Amino acid sequence: DYRAGSETAGWAARDVKNNLQMKPGSHSWSALQQLVSGAINRNDVFNLAAAPKVISPLLISRYETGMGYGDHVDNAVMRVGTPLRSDLSFTVFLSSPDSYQGGELAIEDTQGVQTFKLDSGAMVLYPSSSVHRVEPVTSGVREVAVGWVQSLVRESDRREVLFDLETLRRQVFARDGKTAEFNTLSKAVSNLWRMWVQL
Fold first, then answer.
1. How far is residue 88 from each of residues 28, 75, 78, 175, measured CA to CA in Å?
2. Segment 91-141, tens digit of pLDDT
3. Measured between alpha carbons, how far is 8 from 11 in angstroms, rounded to an integer?
4. Gap between the Cα atoms of 51 and 153, Å rounded
5. What's the rounded Cα separation, in Å, for the pair 27 and 164?
6. What distance in Å separates the CA atoms of residue 9 and residue 80, rounded to the nearest whole number?
7. What is the pLDDT of residue 183?
8. Quick one: pLDDT at residue 13?
9. Which of 3, 152, 11, 147 is nearest to 80 (CA)?
10. From CA 190, how far away is CA 93, in angstroms rounded?
11. SS3 call for 192
12. CA of 52: how far to CAs of 12, 183, 196, in Å?
């Protein structure tokens, strides 16, 4: 069962949101929540990059021919399930990119506009403060799961530092094992987490 996506849009986005969303509580919705949320929770790169404190329940969105979602910024507080501060947004592509035309996720950043149309199961994680849109689908059906993250580390530059250092720490361990250098790097990373985490 689907309903108009505009029912879950903020007042400023209702006029540009033209899609369908699966009604919560159905068997299909529950099964997709479990499947996709489980995959997200097991993904090391996602957990390192997002440092999630709270992840919203997923919205399962469907775009049929002629549907799209114009330029918008996600609400600062998302009220899907327990309210959370939206630090990061994500889109998990469910449809094969070959099964529809158009429908690219377009995100504005300091480099201009980047577009994404990824394989089934792939995710884009991006700042909720970004202006973004879904280009109109010209044929076929685009299905995605979308959600939001309140991070343990609110500042994006600090999350980037932690991501880079943790990536380096794992590389050092893979190359040399548990050395004195690894222990010093681990201490620095842990101390930064203690300084920056908001519980």
1. 26, 11, 11, 32
2. 999 999 999 999 999 999 988 999 999 999 999 999 999 999 999 999 999
3. 9
4. 7
5. 40
6. 11
7. 97
8. 79
9. 147
10. 34
11. helix
12. 27, 25, 13
CA distance 26 to 32: 10
Identify residue 51 by its one-letter amino acid code: A
* 180-184-187 Cα angle (round to 5): 135
User: Could you tell me the CA-to-CA distances from 120 to 24, 32, 45, 73, 91 in Å, in that order?
Assistant: 22, 13, 17, 24, 11
Strand 68-72 vs strand 112-116: parallel, antiparallel, or unpaired? unpaired
How far apart are alpha carbons 114 and 108 in whole angstroms? 6
- Region 165-184: mean pLDDT is 96
In 24-155, alpha helices (H): 27-41, 44-50
> Whole-structure pTM over 0.90, yes or no?
yes
> What does the alpha-carbon distance between residue 178 and residue 10 come to, in Å, rounded to a whole number?
50
Cβ contact 154:87 at 8 Å: yes
CA distances in angstroms from 175 to 53, 63, 180, listed in the order given? 31, 46, 13
Mean pLDDT score across all residues of the chain: 95
